[in-house]
Amino acid sequence: MLISLTILIVCVLLFLGAFFVTGRVLFDYITTWFGRLKIGRWDSVEQWMKAVESQARKSLKRQGWQAGGLLLGLSDKDAEEYVFSHSGLFSRGQSDVESAFLAFALKERGQLPPGEEEKLKNRLSNKSKQSTLPYRDSAPSLRFVDTIGLACPFLYSVGLSGVADRQIVEYDKIRYDGVFPPQAFEPVRNLPMGVYDWSRGIGWYILGIVSSRSNEDRVLQMAERMMGFQRKDGGFGAFIFNPSSRNESVGTALAGILFVTAYKWSGDERFLSSARKAEKALMSMTRRDGSVDFAQGDPAGIGQYSTHYGTMPFVQGMTLCLAKSIDVLSK
Questions:
Q1: Closest CA to 90 of 57, 118, 120
Q2: CA 297 – CA 88 distance, rounded (Å)
């Protein structure tokens, strides 16, 4: 009798669990489907930018590197309010590399507390004395392209250019065709890991190299090659070498930032034209409420890329950053 009751309870719990999971999946599917109704139908760039900015501001409750992306697209006042409402700016769940990106954004907005800047600067400086920075302390023998985008902007901004340069130069020996970085690599044997055409990974590399004029050659070379993979609608696939991969907003936004930087440093109008095409593609990927859609989810590991595409605070901020940069250049 006791065994039968136990089996019954287990069956009920399994049923409820399956029901909850299925219900949640169905709810997410319906919510996404509804959110994408009439997606991309914007009457003007100005109207679109206001909607994207409004949605970015609503997303600013979170912490970490995603908030850093949002703040780069928002105002100094938004950053001031963010600092005021977050007593612990750098959460314990974030690595120093991830904290560096939020710190960079706050510094750009003039809102990074000097004490926090010095503490993070010292930690990163000490970690890099023996070698370049790993993404996480739990994987010290691997290098991820994410680290270039997350840490190098901050390193350049606080006078640790040598540390940032080493991080980027280390990747030079492993890039495909001298341009495209793999998701990760093992530096002792120079073994590449993951793929070379992951749009989001290329975006992380872009964020690092555009942070300093010392990388001008890398920026112009990358921009020149990236134009060859830009689609007719201005977007970039989740895997840029694969023409059948779906358009992806993170890679598209960061490619646009690459093109804007290349234009500023070279004056080549082709780059500005490509930036505007990327902006147009992002408009087509923006929902009615201003949420930028089709951002690929986080990978589960090296080479384990997400099949989920949706909204993401980081791309919301990067899209706004790109749009504002183009708007300034157009005036």
A1: 120
A2: 26
Domain count, the chain: 1
Mean pLDDT computed over 202-230: 98
Residue 203 is inside which H or E element, if any? helix 199-209
Give pLDDT, residue 34. 83
- Residue 121 gets the label, from left (phi > 0), alpha (psi -120 to 50) or beta, of alpha
- What is the CATH classification number for the domain harbouring 306? 1.50.10.10
Q: Are strands 309-310 and 143-144 parallel, antiparallel or unpaired?
A: unpaired
Cβ proximity of 323 and 52 under 8 Å:
yes
pLDDT at 190 over 80: yes
Residue 126: C-alpha distances to residues 26, 116, 134, 191 (Å): 48, 16, 13, 26
Choice between 85 and 226, residue whose per-residue pLDDT is larger: 226
Residue 33 pLDDT exceeds 90: no
Local structure of 238: helix, strand or coil: coil
Residues 112 and 109: their CA atoms lie apart, in Å, by 8
